[in-house]
Amino acid sequence: MTNTGEIFSRERLIEMLSLHEPKAIESLYGLAKSIAYETFLGDVYMRGLIEVSNICAKNCNYCGIRADNGNIQRYLMPIEKVEEAAQFAFDNNLGSVVIQSGERNDKAFTDYLDDVIKMVMRISDGKLAITLSCGEQTEETYRRWFESGAKRYLLRIETTNIALYKTIHPNNNKHNFSHRLEALTALKDIGYITGTGVMIGLPGQTIADLADDLLFFRDLEVDMVGMGPYLVHAETPMAADEAKLLPIEKRFELSMKMISALRILMPDINIAASTALQAIKPEGRMLALHSGANVMMPNITPVEFTENYFLYDGKPGTTVEPAEKLEGIISDIRKAGFNPCFNVSGNPPHFYRTQQTA
Ligand code: 5AD
Ligand code: SF4
Questions:
Q1: What are phi and psi of 118, to 5 degrees?
Q2: pLDDT confidence bin for 5, thresholds 50/70/90
Q3: Best of 62, 63, 169 for a ligand 2 pocket test (most atoms within 8 Å of beta carbon)
Q4: Residues 102, 104, 105: CA angle, nearest 5 degrees
Q5: What is the mean pLDDT of residues 129-142?
Q6: What are phi and psi of 347, to 5 degrees?
Q7: Distance (Å) from CA 133 to ligand 1 centroid
Q8: How do residues 69-104 score in pLDDT, each as one tens digit?
Q9: How far apart are the C-alpha atoms of 64 and 236, rounded to whole Å?
Q10: What is d(CA 259, CA 272) in angstroms, rounded to the nearest whole number?
Q11: Is 296 in contact with 270 (CB distance < 8 Å)?
Q12: How far is the CA of 102 from the centre of ligand 1 (A)?
């Protein structure tokens, strides 16, 4: 797997992402699916996603819960409510939870999150694996949360084109590409199983940018990737750029090609079937499994909160109860010919392989 032959060259990736013949695209998906099968044998790792807070100190130009959006009701789930959701995950044998929130670095929040981690460890006797997705934090905070029991962390790089990164974020020190990179390195150094990802189809983003994103994932030796189409949220500065975007169908197709190309490039990492895909097509996440993804993250946030966690317009499932959503997704995964896995943490083989050889 370390041989970076011709198939892994930047040019080859650009070719894959540029395919336009339906048959050629189908065979790209098919190749990626068979590579995923060799590693995972049809298994799909499950995580229960809990969106614990939509309060965010940042102002990313694309995101519906950016600090300057005054049109949403902000919440921080009381810890008892998070406990109910974690208990639901545990009772339903999910094996793992993802704790997601807006980005806050204040002590009240970092303490709260530490309590959440300890609570999940306590109620599950350490059996529920915890992934965090809570943005950039100091190395000290990352270390504290790791020691309390979180062992995986997702922090998307959003785009590796630095000029593009600047255009999609406010121009201030808080939204800085090199900080993001340093945070990712800190997570890896601490020992987190680290994930990142990008948005696909951003205004001004090129196919070559996306090929570079894939090479970045490989060079950083990340263990997990979550990526999906960029979707407009009307109450954001980037809504004004809508006319510059690829049609939504094309953004969807490009996202699927990205998943396939990444699977070919990195056969044994975890690749999520992202919620944003489902926002475009109801069967979007199942199609992602057919093109190389192996992780599904059913949203188990109580309905009273989900309706305020709108990163983009058309976010699906915000009025459906978690139990119903979970049942539906498990049945869809089986119908698609895959095997949803229960009571496993679902760590990527890549993590163990690179730990041994590093
Ligand atoms: N479209 C698609 N993805 C988005 N995210 C935030 N806003 C949007 C949007 N408008 C993604 C970002 C972030 C993750 C939590 O959600 O990639 O890292
Ligand atoms: Fe906050 Fe994350 Fe949205 Fe940026 S993408 S505004 S950090 S929640």
A1: -65, -40
A2: very low
A3: 63
A4: 155
A5: 98
A6: -75, 145
A7: 12
A8: 999 999 999 999 999 999 999 999 999 999 999 999
A9: 6
A10: 9
A11: no
A12: 11
Measured in Å, how far apart are the chain's first and last C-alpha atoms? 14
Give the tokens for residue 139: 């190395």
Q: What single letter denotes the amino acid at residue 99?
A: I
> Can you list the positions of beta strands (E) in the chain?
43-46, 48-53, 96-101, 129-133, 152-154, 193-196, 199-200, 224-225, 228-229, 270-271, 295-296, 339-341
Q: Which atom of ligand 2 is nearest to the CA of 169?
A: 4
Q: Cα of 102 to ligand 2 centre, how many Å? A: 6
Structure tokens at 154: 């997702």
User: What mean pLDDT comes out for the span 126-152?
Assistant: 98
Instruction: Give the pLDDT of residue 356.
Output: 55
User: Which numbered atom of ligand 2 lies nearest the CA of 102?
Assistant: 8
Confidence label for 42 from pLDDT (cuts 50, 70 and 90): very high
Contacts for 79 with CB less than 8 Å, ≥ 6 apart = 112, 115, 116, 119
- Predicted confidence band at 353 (pLDDT cuts at 50, 70, 90)? confident
Tokens representing residue 223 in the block: 């263990």
Ligand 2 center to 341 CA (angstroms) = 30
Distances (CA, A) of 241 to 56, 237, 255, 280: 23, 8, 20, 19
Q: Using 50, 70 and 90 to split pLDDT, how confident is the model at 3?
A: very low
Integer Cα distance of 108 and 125 in angstroms = 25
Count how many residues are written for the chain.
358
The protein residue whose alpha carbon is closest to atom 2 in ligand 2 is 102
Q: Look at ligand 2, atom 6, and give the residue with the nearest C-alpha.
A: 66
96-124 as b/e, with b when 16 or more CB fall inside 10 Å? bbbbbbbbbeeeebbebbbebbebbbebb
Q: What's the 3-state SS for 218-247? A: HHHCCCEECCEECCCCCCCHHHHHHHHCCC
Q: Is the pLDDT of residue 131 over 80?
A: yes
pLDDT at 358 over 90: no
Q: What is the pLDDT of residues 215-266, one digit of tens each?
A: 999 999 999 999 999 999 999 999 999 999 999 999 999 999 999 999 999 9
Q: Name the percent of the chain lying above pLDDT 90.
A: 88
